[in-house]
Amino acid sequence: MTAEYREEPCRSALNKVKGMGFKWSLNPYTGCVHRCTFCFVRAFELRADRPSDDRYGRSIRVKVNLVEVLRRELLRPSWRRELVAFGTATDPYQPAEGRYRLTRGSVQALVEMDTPFSLLTRGPLIVRDVDLLADASRRVEVTINFSVPTLDPEVWRKTEPWTSPPRQRLRALKVLSDAGVRAGVGMAPILPGLSDRPEQLTDVVRAARDAGASFIWCNVLYLRPGTREHFLESLARDWPEQLPRYEQIYAHGAYGRRADVEAVRKQVRELGRRHGIGDRPRLTPPPSRSRNEAVSEQLVLMA
Ligand code: SF4
User: Is it the case that residue 42 has pLDDT exceeding 80?
Assistant: First the structure.
């Protein structure tokens, strides 16, 4: 698939986040060429009055000055070195990163300022940065989440048409894990009736364990307006027999029935325990340097 890349500078790099397990997010790109049918970002796009339908992911904004802006923000006296999450509204290792290196540059800037970070991706391109991430893991807390909702070839191909195969992501996880980077698997989203059978869940957990995953978590599909219309349209095309079931499950809101969601989470937790995921020791970074030391080093680097 060809996409248009728009090189548009940004005014700010770090976004303040509310109601999540982290306070800051960082998205080097707007839009994602992976164009998953269930992509949660479609809902943000609709709210921002941008296309959330089939046009989503065909035009990508590249924040070409992101690293420079980020470095300035990290130097502010008010910066408290709180965890920064990559990949909350785009895939930071989508193909554009091969050329623009904005995720890589941002990671370097965060590490120089002793700032912990987490990252969520489906992109095996991340192995390019294995040395950087291994070095970062010795200095700050680093958590890499590989999104692997399923290993089922049909479900993958129809719902994530432009992503790399899930097993390739797991090979990338192994490279990182072998290099000492804390990495695990997020099974998200699990699709009712399509990827939630016990044997399908077991396959992912077992493969994650074999790849050296330090943790595993899951989420069941949620359908906010923007995501909902596109996903149900794709479902009607690919699995029309499932449509009534989804219309029923999501009749009253974005989330499925609470009991069903909890049942899937419980299964994944138990599978994780049974396969020994979560027992790996967490890497403990050395004590942070003082803020003054980090700032002076940064000023020298920028001079
Ligand atoms: S990889 Fe993530 S951000 Fe990209 S389209 Fe898929 S769900 Fe959306």
Answer: yes
